[in-house]
């Protein structure tokens, strides 16, 4: 037994350096692996914290912008037509064209003229300094006028703000769009782009409003 132990000690003695080197190498590998894992974990945590921080800053920035920007509301309004002041030239021309058509072909269908207006309300916190309304009017003649080869038509025009038509927070502004009463049937489509004093730009997407002269649109001649 003693001899066996002596032989084992002799072998260990002869390979001490190799064993130590193996142990050191193994420990080094383990420590390096731990270092790599810890480094990756740390960077991931930093990245996640950066994302959270950036998101928070963006949300605060967005809330700040929303808190101080303008917010335009446009309400359609019909009212009695008293004059043609403040209507665009394009709107007046369309009105006059169909007034002539109706008076020449269906004078009994003429009715009291009215005004289609948009009421602007600034419900935001910043002055609206500039706006533009893109208007499209689709007019249908009805069966009788169509039988006289009078076709419907589509008209496009823009209404641009003047320097005196800025809208402060809580303020209102009435914009005359087009007079009506002589259109057998019309669809008024509009889209509004506006800009506030902080250079924020916004848009009210397309909306439709319908007006009609039922007498003219539904009229049938005695021969039909």
Describe this entry's structure for a reader:
By secondary structure, the protein is α+β, with helices and mostly antiparallel strands. It is built from five helices and seven strands. The strands form two sheets. A four-stranded antiparallel sheet has the order 4-3-6-7. Strands 1-2-5 form a three-stranded antiparallel sheet. Strand 6 and strand 7 form a beta hairpin. The chain is elongated, with a radius of gyration of 40 Å. The termini are far apart.
Strand-helix topology:
Layout: H1 2-14, H2 16-68, E1 72-80, H3 89-105, E2 114-122, E3 128-140, H4 142-147, E4 153-160, E5 172-180, E6 185-196, E7 201-212, H5 214-218
Antiparallel strand pairs: 1-2, 2-5, 3-4, 3-6, 6-7
Indicate the overall shape.
elongated
Number of strands: 7
Biggest sheet architecture:
4 strands, antiparallel
* Uncertain spans: none
Structural class: alpha+beta
Q: Element order, helices and strands?
A: HHEHEEHEEEEH
Order of strands, main sheet, comes to 4-3-6-7
**Fraction in beta strands:** 25-35%
The overall average pLDDT, rounded, is 82
Count helical runs: 5
- What is the percent of helical residues? 40-55%
Radius of gyration: 40 Å
Q: Termini distance?
A: 132 Å
């Amino acid at each position: 037994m003693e001899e066996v132990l002596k032989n084992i000690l002799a072998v260990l003695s002869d390979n001490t350096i190799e064993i130590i080197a193996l142990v050191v190498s193994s420990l080094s590998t383990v420590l390096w692996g731990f270092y790599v894992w810890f480094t990756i974990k740390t960077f991931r945590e930093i990245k996640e914290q950066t994302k959270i921080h950036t998101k928070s800053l963006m949300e605060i920035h967005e809330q700040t912008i929303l808190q101080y920007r303008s917010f335009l509301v446009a309400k359609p309004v019909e009212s009695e037509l008293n004059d043609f002041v403040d209507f665009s030239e394009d709107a007046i021309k369309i009105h006059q064209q169909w007034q002539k058509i109706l008076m020449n072909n269906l004078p009994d269908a003429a009715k009291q003229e009215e005004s289609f207006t948009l009421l602007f309300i600034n419900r935001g916190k910043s002055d609206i300094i500039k706006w533009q309304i893109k208007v499209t009017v689709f007019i249908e003649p009805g069966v009788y006028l169509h039988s006289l080869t009078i076709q419907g038509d589509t008209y496009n025009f823009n209404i641009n703000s003047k320097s005196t038509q800025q809208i402060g927070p809580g303020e209102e502004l009435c914009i005359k769009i087009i007079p009506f009463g002589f259109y057998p049937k019309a669809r008024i489509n509009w889209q509004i782009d506006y800009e506030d004093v902080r250079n924020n730009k916004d848009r009210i997407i397309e909306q439709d409003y319908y007006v009609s002269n039922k007498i003219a649109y539904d009229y049938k001649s005695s021969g039909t």
